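In the previous chapter we treated chains in isolation. Here, by contrast, the input contains two separate entities that must be folded as one system, with a combined length of 992 residues.
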Amino acid sequence: MIYLCPEILKMKKTHIFLLVGIAALIVTLIVFSAGDFSTYESIASAKNKQGTFVHLIAKLDKSEPIEYDAINNPNYLSFYAVDSLGGKTKVVFHNSKPTDLEKSERIVMKGTMKADHFECKDILLKCPSKYKDDKKQLEKTIADQPDSAY
Amino acid sequence: MQFENEHLLPGQIGHFFVLLAFVASIVATISYFTAAKKTDLIEKRSWLNFARLAFITQLISAAIIFVTIFYICANHYFEYMYAYKHASKELEPKYLLACIWEGQEGSFLLWTIWHGILGVIIMIKSKNPVSSGWEAPVMSVISLAQCFLLMMLLGLYVGEVRLGSSPFTLTRNEIAGPIFSRPDYLTFIKDGVGLNVLLRNYWMVIHPPILFLGFASTIIPFAFAYAGIQTKRFGEWVTPALPWALLSACVLGVGIMMGGKWAYESLSFGGYWAWDPVENASLVPWLILVAGLHTMVIFKATGHSLKASYLFAFLSFIFILYSTFLTRTGILGDTSVHAFTDAGTAINVMILIFVAAFTLPSLGLLIANLKKIPVIQKEESTNSREFWMFIGSLVFFLTAIFIIAKTSVPVYNKIFGTQIAQPEDVELSYNKVVIMVAIIIGLLSAVTQYLKYKKTATGTFFKKIALPTFIAAAISISLAIFYPLTYYKAGAGYLGAAYIALFAAIFSVIANSMYIWTGLNGKLKSAGASIAHIGFALMLVGILISSSNKEVISSSRTNGININISGKDPLTKQTDNPLENLTLIRQVPAGMGPYQVTYLKDSFGNEKGRRFYELLFQRKDAVTNKLTEQFTLKPDVYIMKDNNMSSNPDTKSYLNKDVFTFISYAVSEKEEDTARFNIQEMAEGDTAFYSNGIIILNRVVKNPDNEKYHFKPTDAALMADITLIGKDSMHYKASPVIHIDAFGVNQIDDTVYAQNLYLKFAGVTDGQKIKLGIKESDKLISYVTLKAYVFPYINLVWLGLIIMALGIVMSAVKRAKLSTFYAALALIFAGVGLFYMFLLAN
């Protein structure tokens, strides 16, 4: 702090109080908001933390059906997710189905684990071709050129 | 092997100039550095001249590189990786520039060119560069930055490591594929991957250059601060640096908000700010820069705050570099929606060295010289302007530290192996802190100008501030009564804070407006600061209102189809209840807030795979049932070449609100319909059944001439006038037609989308009956799922930004002592440009 604002050293006490007050306010707020940071969990560990807001990194379980009927209810999507540790859970997302869900190779889900399913609030998909700089994808694209001899 | 039809010359030219620019920047750095050290004036002059030559060579080379990349992309030379990755044949020419800055190489090049141009302006402006000028030390810093930026474009191998990535690499060298073993491989590359459709927006042509000019310009206060220490003229640097700091704050601020406007117009997260790490990373240097320019003003007026000015000048550029590190190295990973990627370890290490090369020496020099920087022993009085300005700067700085600390969580995870993730409501976790900042800054910016430097007579201060306080309180209270904020989801405490912030912002608008007359006697020339504060506060008002009172009109609740989730707060109409999607069946109107919305049809755009959905919004007067408002929005869905879907919103802008909608779900392809027509024989008045109700044949009309069909009495046409009554007792009309002309029998089928029903007039029987084909299909239904919001008073945000930018420009031209002609020119140019871009060009 001394290097940050050397003026402090030469101020009246009232000034110092004021500055300390503001700094304390901000520090409190940081601490206060630090409390609402969440964590990354596996499906198994999330099941031990039912009701806590967590982030799950998982994959779509392609052997189970995806349930989404936009005409009857555009705000209900359910599917099954598996993670690399072998955990499996049903996921319910009260929102529209992300279009690339089937193609995704990794899903980051934010929400809370309930008794029988994961109540998801937000989904972030990682699709294989999301990034142009991914060379494998470019190789695939170039192989997919129409009229390619191969 | 000899490959056919390749155009290798432009690449060779480009690569040569990359090398030349890099070498020239090294020469410029060394020469400027030496020139700054030399005390002998003749030697100094010769080094300086040499350095200028090198710097200009470097700028010209960078410009040639730019033109070469443009040429390659414009001509679709897909043998170059850059053109293959970023350009495509169907791309409209206006987006060619956007292609260049889509890639990492292009954006670094843009940055380099801006540094170069700013450097040349410094050369031109520097009077008497040898004896007293700042040119040598300032330019040695800029030239060093150029070395690093150009190194990113080198693409040279040092052993196994590739140093930088060249924009002129060849596709066949970069990616593997069987076609590359053929000499005629180019005939197989029909088209490039093309520009990401999200970037096909006019903001993407203008936003990156402005933002990078903002980035580039922050180096100048940094360089002057360094020059102050290097030349041991510890306080003098502030005067020449201040106009640059103002210019930088203006350009960077505008650039950031252009990004916000782009996100608002072309991303589907429904807003202009989401506290995304990429946004934060550019906001943080701006906050520090604004803190810095205030401490510089304090120093010029009173001699206080010099050390803080040094610190802020250094840190704003350091945080620009740190933000480059965050956004370009892929370290943000899952936390950002922006798809910047990991560009490879070598580049990441280079960026890290770039950050370190500017951070360590500058802060080290500052600490080493701390005792030599002059300090005024007399302390500020609590009723002086400089005291409260300093507090304001400090709040801005602490806010910046708070934001960057939170944004850097993925960095801690990487270093310490922790698993900390974003909180449940990311935006709220920032907002609840920033709203406090808004209150403090609103109040400070309102009252501080009424204080005088050194010491203020308390009596006159209260006399002058009383009226603005009263007016602001009156406006705030009437707003609270007649147009209350409706942001309930974060609780009463937060709502209270939002009201206080709203008052503080209104107070600042009023107090600063009145100050122009009561404090400055209407002298607009000196009113730059007041005007900038008015703009900033107006922006705060717009942000508070448009985000607090954002209304989800596509929510299933407003539509009446209520799907309840248990355990929700009845007060929370919005995000806590995520039922924001509404499905519209084609041609069936649905209620959405005050509107009745009908999905009319869809159509294809210029690009293959892009589909526009035409939505008709109608608003009827509740009493007279007359149409009072009608407009069509065309949000679109684009399946890109890499098979990713992007949903692009469409907005209807009014002066006081925006209606914003985007497609959240759509079936991409029409599936094959396998159902068949079932033929029923019916006479007039007969009834037939379908799965969801009954079909009544009212009558058969010969040669109908009505709204839909226009047959002449001489034609041979029959129309079946049919009424459908669904199980839900809804009535629908249908009128299939059969008609005979010279070419044969034609049937015009009718479709009732709401009932999934196709009706065909198949023919007539002998006994006064008609054959009616009935087809039901679950594949037939054509629908689209969307979200729609109303943003009230969002234009205040853009208007506030424009006013703020103009206020800063006014201050800058005054501080730079430009002649009236140039000052007016700068203002008119900035004003017209910003006004057009933000408020008219839609």
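The radius of gyration of chain A is 24 Å. Chain A touches chain B through 68 residues (CB under 8 Å). Compare these points with the single-chain example from earlier in the chapter.
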